[in-house]
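subagent[fold] <- orchestrator: predict structure for attached chain, return tokens only, no commentary.
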Amino acid sequence: MLSGTRTLEGPVALILQFVRVNRSVFDDSVTSVMGEAFDAACAKLQDNNLSQLVREIIAERIIEAAKRGERDPERLCSFAIAAMGSRRKAG
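subagent[fold] -> orchestrator:
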């Protein structure tokens, strides 16, 4: 493992914009798990053009679950998908 500053890319970078807005503090490993869950939830919705609002809802649900101590990316993803309710239908 490298010490110092890491460059964050991919799903981790996407969820970071929401984590910062919520002024939440998560370590790198939790942020990585949250990013993995965010990416998986977006993929499961089978829509490459998710709106900003949908992405915010997904991120908020993942952040809320992580604040409660959830660290399993599959469960975080499930919480996010459940929050979408009937909006889950693929186009």
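orchestrator: received. Logging for downstream: DSSP finds four helices and no strands in the chain. Residues 10-84 form one domain.
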